[in-house]
């Protein structure tokens, strides 16, 4: 597994090295020892406590979601299909505060993201079916949910496909300006 920096402070791309042959492939999607050594913080990988998976159809958008309080760190990967993944830094003291970056995650290159606490996250399914796996470092608490509308004019996220479906929660999410007020 190789680890790469991104344009967003503290966000990492984890790049597995699949072994391919006539049977298909085998890849290690995560290696705690490599991850902890890269971060220089032994035991960080062990703090992940919950795994979740979503399935979405082509054009579906999920996001933009975050967590209040101490936030949550997460590993995000697309186990099947492909997604257009979007992150926005919402850490007021970060050098990349308010900056967004997009990534394509798929089941061919197996790249996935380490997202530290303090980011909005969302994605759009690019394939007929996209399965996204999340590993988070603390149990989900709905009372700490943050959301900004996926089509917020200030964020100006360019989704590559026409948006086909969003949840009622995402359709009624607040604005970037409301989040800025909340963050103080």
Keywords:
single chain; mainly beta; Jelly Rolls; six-stranded antiparallel β-sheet; five-stranded antiparallel β-sheet; globular
3D architecture notes:
This protein is mainly beta and 184 residues long. It has one domain (8-13, 49-183): Jelly Rolls. 11% of the residues lie in helices and 40% in strands. The chain has helices spanning 32-39, 168-171, 176-183; strands at 2-5, 12-15, 19-21, 24-26, 50-57, 61-67, 74-80, 82-89, 100-106, 112-115, 119-125, 129-136, 145-147. The strands form three sheets. The protein has a six-stranded antiparallel β-sheet, covered by helices on one side. It has a five-stranded antiparallel β-sheet with strand order 9-8-11-6-13, with no helix packed on it. A two-stranded antiparallel sheet has the order 3-4.
């Amino acid at each position: 597994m190789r680890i790469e920096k991104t344009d967003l402070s503290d966000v990492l791309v984890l790049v597995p090295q699949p072994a391919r042959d006539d049977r298909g492939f085998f890849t290690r999607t995560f290696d705690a020892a490599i991850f902890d050594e890269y971060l220089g913080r032994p035991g960080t990988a062990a703090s992940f406590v919950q795994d979740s998976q979503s399935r979405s159809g082509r054009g579906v958008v999920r996001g933009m979601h975050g967590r209040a309080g101490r936030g949550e760190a997460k590993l995000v990967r697309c186990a099947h299909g492909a997604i257009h993944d979007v992150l926005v830094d919402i850490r007021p003291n970060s050098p990349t505060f308010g900056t967004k970056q997009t990534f394509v995650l798929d089941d061919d290159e197996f790249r996935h993201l380490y997202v530290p606490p303090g980011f909005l996250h969302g994605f759009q399914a690019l394939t007929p079916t996209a399965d996204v796996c999340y590993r988070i470092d603390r149990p989900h608490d709905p009372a700490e949910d943050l959301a900004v509308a996926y089509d917020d004019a200030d964020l100006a996220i360019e989704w590559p496909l026409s948006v086909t479906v969003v949840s009622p929660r995402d359709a009624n999410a607040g604005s970037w300006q409301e989040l800025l007020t909340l963050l103080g």
